[in-house]
Every structure is written in C-alpha cells, then in structure tokens.
Amino acid sequence: MIETAGWKDALEHLITLLAPFAPHISEELWSRLGQETSVHLQSWPEYDPSALEQNTVTMAVQVNGKVRAEIEVAKDADKAAILEVAKAESNVAKYLQEGELKREIVVPGKLVNLVVK
User: Fold this and answer.
1) Which strand (E) or helix (H) includes residue 68?
2) Most buried of 15, 32, 63, 76 (most Cβ within 10 A)?
3) For residue 59, what are the CA distances in angstroms to 70, 71, 76, 116?
4) Are residues 25 and 60 in the same domain?
5) Is-above-0.70 flag for pTM?
C-alpha cells in the first residue's frame, strides 16, 4: 500500500496526531497501515528542529527601487554570488541594458537593489 518508508512514517505521525480528535477513524487507518496495537498507545511524535532548516532563501531583486524578479540562492551565499544570480535573471537583465549600473545594494537574505542611470 505505502511505497516508501518515509511516507509510512509520515502517515503514522499524522494518524497519531489525529487520534485525539477523531479516535475511531484514526484507529481504522492505523490498523490499515498494518499496526497491531492501538494508535492511542503510541507516544507523541518528537519535535525535530533540523527538519525546519532551509538551505536556500528567496530574495527580491529590485531595479531602481521596483521589484523586477525573485531569486533563490544558497542561505550562506556571498555578495558576488547573489549579484551574479540576480543579474542573470531575464527581467533584470533587460533593465540593466537600458543604462549604466551605478550602484549595487545587497542585503543578505532579504533583497538586491540595482541602481541604473
């Protein structure tokens, strides 16, 4: 029924969390997963803070103060790498060709602002 161990683990946690609110259907779903004991005898799932960590961030790219694109870069990317990705974005490149790039402002994890005159 379940193709991977990850899915089965996720469903078991979901059913365990659902059990106090919908005990009868939770018990039925629990038995269909092939479990022998009651879902109500299971321990509460443990909190895993590492599951919430993200390796990338989404940043807004502005040209002359107007948002022109959003980019996704590594969380620990340096200024040069962020600017390279921002300038490669097609909608941003279009505006950069219209004039001379005067200033590059990078707020890591938040935004990139390119000033063109």
Assistant:
1) strand 66-74
2) 63
3) 6, 5, 13, 19
4) no
5) no
Joined tokens for residue 92: 């941003």
60, 101: one domain = yes
Q: In what order do the strands lie in the sheet with 101-107?
A: 66-74, 56-63, 111-116, 101-107
What string of pLDDT tens digits covers the 117 residues of the chain? 557 878 988 999 999 999 999 999 999 999 999 999 999 999 998 888 988 888 999 999 999 999 999 999 999 999 999 999 999 999 999 999 988 999 999 999 899 999 998
* Residue 100's CATH number: 3.10.20.590
Both 62 and 108 in a single domain? yes
3-class SS at 22?
coil
Same domain, 66 and 111: yes
Domain that holds residue 86: 56-116
